[in-house]
Amino acid sequence: MMTKRLLAFCMVFVCLAVTNVFAGASYRDHQQLTQKLRGLADKHPDLISLQTLGKTVGGKDIWLLSIGAGDITKKPAIAMVGGVSGDHLLGTEIALGFAERLALGVGQQDVRALLDSVTFYIVPDVSPDARAQFFAPLRYERFGNANPSDLDRDGRIGEDPYDDLNGDGLITLMRIKDPTGKWIKHPDDERVMVKANMEKGERGQYLVFSEGVDNDKDGQFNEDGEEGIFFNKNFTFDYPVFDRGAGEHPVSEIETRAIADFLFGAKNVFAVVSFGPANNLTHPLSFSERNASGRIITGWLEHDATINRMVSHTYHMHVQSKGSSAVSGSPGDFFQWAYFHYGRFSFSTPGWWVPPAGDDGKPAENAEVNFLRWAEKENIPDVFVPWTRVDHPDFPGQEAEVGGIAPFVMKNPPEQIIAGIADNHYGFLMHLAAMRPRLDIVNVKTEQLGRNLFRISVDIANTGAMPATSQLGQRVRWVQKPVVRLELDRRQELISGRTIDIIQELQGHSSTERSWLVRGGGTVTLRAGSESAGFKQIEIKL
């Protein structure tokens, strides 16, 4: 019943939010984000606290917003992380939007009851140095932080940055007409460049590069600019040792160390929700016995994959996902680390996808063509830079043009629809919180066996939909399993059973029985639970 009431409340609140409060939502820079977070904490000091997990090399705080009532460390928690990829601004807006909507609802009985039993940890931006490029005079899709790095590993740092050849403040593409090229204009939209298909007899006509100049004369363009290490390549699972932006070793950066240290200390987190390129919410991951049974586990375990399907179904109830596709993760990314090395349920979504733009309701085969068709249909301006001739010093005497789809626009929707997207994700996240593991002690029985001997039997029940721990988490030392503790006084003696008993597995909507033989009268205390599943304590009279 709690879930249904909460879901109904979410739907009502979402409708109010769209029309009254968030209609003018926009992408906010780091200063605006900081002001909003401080405002929320100042307005609700009894429920919301703000702290910094550290400062980046660029001098920006990595903010953590904690929301909940009472001792928030003793209640099941959801950790939300935005800015996982520096070019994905929407994730920060969804995370911040959730906090704003939750703060508006604290006066409602259902929301207040939820905050009495659930904690929300929100890190809206873990890539503040990279995300700042969206607001800079020169705009390009940046992934790395402000730590100076030799991205092309040639012994020099920052020798080949981005160059704005047409002076529009945007870094797009450049195409050079060349018989040795491997690119052609797309037959359905000549603005888009695609690789020539040799099997179809197509012959390349262009070279295509990122807009820029080969400053270090190594045949590459913009391969060693100001940006440093990528947050989403610097984690320990499947670490891509020699990849550009991965860093010298895993968790080498302030940002990755800050979030890893915080989460390892947050024992009450039962699920991590990140907003970025990985996607197992519209398309849940499949169980692979081969990947799940190797010496190094690289696939979700069977019971966890079942939970992924359940949560995906919940996501579809709230979020439209036409045009979405599954992305299982990438080497060194945060999404996979949160499951395989942190041991929690890890859910990720980009939050928005370019809708299908074909007349038949299907997307065009080429993603860029589909995007341009959709933008034209919806009258979205400034998404394409027309191809313009330039004189390029690296290609004297050749036809060189600069143009293409503007940076950020294919991954971040127009500002006028941010509010609706945040509303839908608010509903999903509230629903996910209602599905949390909830431990209870039920069916308590006390039998008198004679000679001052008593048998105590109880069921330790999980009344929530989510398991007390993930199946993988049962193997990870950082995940605390539920513990049952029977406390006796001096007049009492334990004949059989354990005073401290660990529950290895407790699925959602299930229970496990425990019993003890105790000699002596009076009252015993029984406690059961864990930080990530909640606690329950009862007194049993003998």
The biggest sheet amounts to:
6 strands, mixed
- Count of alpha/pi helices: 11
Overall tally of structural domains: 3
Strand content: 15-25%
Rg calc: 27 Å
Spatial strand arrangement across the major sheet: 1-2-4-3-9-10
Low-pLDDT regions: 1-20
Just give the CATH class of the largest domain. Alpha Beta
What is the CATH architecture term of the largest domain?
3-Layer(aba) Sandwich
The overall pLDDT average reads: 92
The coarse silhouette is: elongated
Work out the number of β strands. Answer: 20
> For this structure, what is the CATH homologous superfamily of the largest domain?
Zn peptidases
CATH topology-level fold name of the largest domain: Aminopeptidase
Distance between the termini: 34 Å
Task: Determine the fraction of residues in helical runs and give it as a percent range.
Answer: 10-25%
The structural class is: alpha+beta
Kindly list the characteristics that best describe this protein.
about 550 residues; alpha+beta; Aminopeptidase; Immunoglobulin-like; 3 domains; six-stranded mixed sheet; four-stranded antiparallel sheet; 11 helices; 20 strands; about 25% strand; disordered N terminus
Brief characterization of the structure:
The protein has helices at 2-20, 30-43, 89-104, 109-115, 128-131, 254-265, 289-292, 302-318, 334-340, 367-377, 418-434, and strands at 48-55, 61-67, 77-81, 119-123, 173-177, 183-186, 189-195, 206-210, 269-275, 345-349, 384-390, 400-405, 439-450, 453-462, 483-487, 493-496, 500-502, 510-519, 523-530, 534-541. With 542 residues, the protein is an alpha+beta fold.
